Amino acid sequence: MSKNNSNQFMCGKYQLDLAHPHVMGIVNVTPDSFSDGGRYASTEKAVAHAVQLVADGAHILDIGGESTRPNATPVGLEEELERVIPVIERLAREVDVPLSIDTYKPQVMSAAVKAGAAIINDIRGLQEPGAVEVAAEGDAGICIMHMQGTPQTMQQNPVYEDVVQEVATFLSERLQACMAAGIKAERIVLDPGFGFGKRTVHNLALLNGLPDILALGRPLLVGLSRKSVLGQIVGSDVDQRLHASLAASVISVMKGGRIVRVHDVKATVDALKVVDAVIHA
Ligand code: 7PJ
């Protein structure tokens, strides 16, 4: 495969060569209700998990303090900051991979970047007032994701005429808006947002349609790890979706995806080494 500039992803002090697939490990920072250590315990737990993911081969860590699963209760700004900022500060010192902040709140983006985050991963595609401006201020990489509706309502009745076309149009418009605000294309990756306001038919059409979205000219990030679409296909609970998730990661990269966002880093790294060897053979 030839070297292609559109595979370069600039994020803070890092430049990732996405000609090779990259694994983004998921780090959820949620309060630990079983421990009396409170905030300190949840910070320690998230940091330890993150350090393990890097040892397992994660190329990027995605840190999130608010669950965006369907029907999840929103987390307030102060609470979200208290969850994620101490974790990012610690990891910025302890690991040498780009840290991504999974948030749609401009205040969290800005604090996270100050604390050492190199990527802003926004499930709302920088649509919150002020988000594009915060992203344009620094040199962080940006992941623009598509979602229909909001996490509270998105799975109630998702409707599309042509899901691939509609997702591509949205991502293209957000890409233009970011570039108009001064964010260089090299800093942007795009994500169809699997499971965010999509039924199984929509998720499958999008997976098949990844080449059409790749045609927008920027690398694709794909998040299918343990998602309910896989549970529907395989008939398994969320903690029994490793094999289905590996299949999804392999297919995603074969179809043109370049960053996969996953829980099970070690297994995914091995699976994608095989895909990488085939792609570059
Ligand atoms: C995604 C995400 C995804 C990006 C979540 C879950 C839901 N960010 N954050 N793409 N999913 N960019 O992991 O089940 O698919 S949270």
From TrEMBL:
<dbReference type="InterPro" id="IPR006390">
    <property type="entry name" value="DHP_synth_dom"/>
</dbReference>
<dbReference type="InterPro" id="IPR011005">
    <property type="entry name" value="Dihydropteroate_synth-like_sf"/>
</dbReference>
<dbReference type="GO" id="GO:0004156">
    <property type="term" value="F:dihydropteroate synthase activity"/>
</dbReference>
<keyword id="KW-0808">Transferase</keyword>
<feature type="domain" description="Pterin-binding">
    <location>
        <begin position="21"/>
        <end position="273"/>
    </location>
</feature>
<comment type="pathway">
    <text>Cofactor biosynthesis; tetrahydrofolate biosynthesis; 7,8-dihydrofolate from 2-amino-4-hydroxy-6-hydroxymethyl-7,8-dihydropteridine diphosphate and 4-aminobenzoate: step 1/2.</text>
</comment>
<keyword id="KW-0460">Magnesium</keyword>
<keyword id="KW-0479">Metal-binding</keyword>
<comment type="function">
    <text>Catalyzes the condensation of para-aminobenzoate (pABA) with 6-hydroxymethyl-7,8-dihydropterin diphosphate (DHPt-PP) to form 7,8-dihydropteroate (H2Pte), the immediate precursor of folate derivatives.</text>
</comment>
<dbReference type="InterPro" id="IPR000489">
    <property type="entry name" value="Pterin-binding_dom"/>
</dbReference>
<dbReference type="InterPro" id="IPR045031">
    <property type="entry name" value="DHP_synth-like"/>
</dbReference>
<dbReference type="Pfam" id="PF00809">
    <property type="entry name" value="Pterin_bind"/>
</dbReference>
<protein>
    <recommendedName>
        <fullName>Dihydropteroate synthase</fullName>
        <ecNumber>2.5.1.15</ecNumber>
    </recommendedName>
</protein>
<comment type="similarity">
    <text>Belongs to the DHPS family.</text>
</comment>
<keyword id="KW-0289">Folate biosynthesis</keyword>
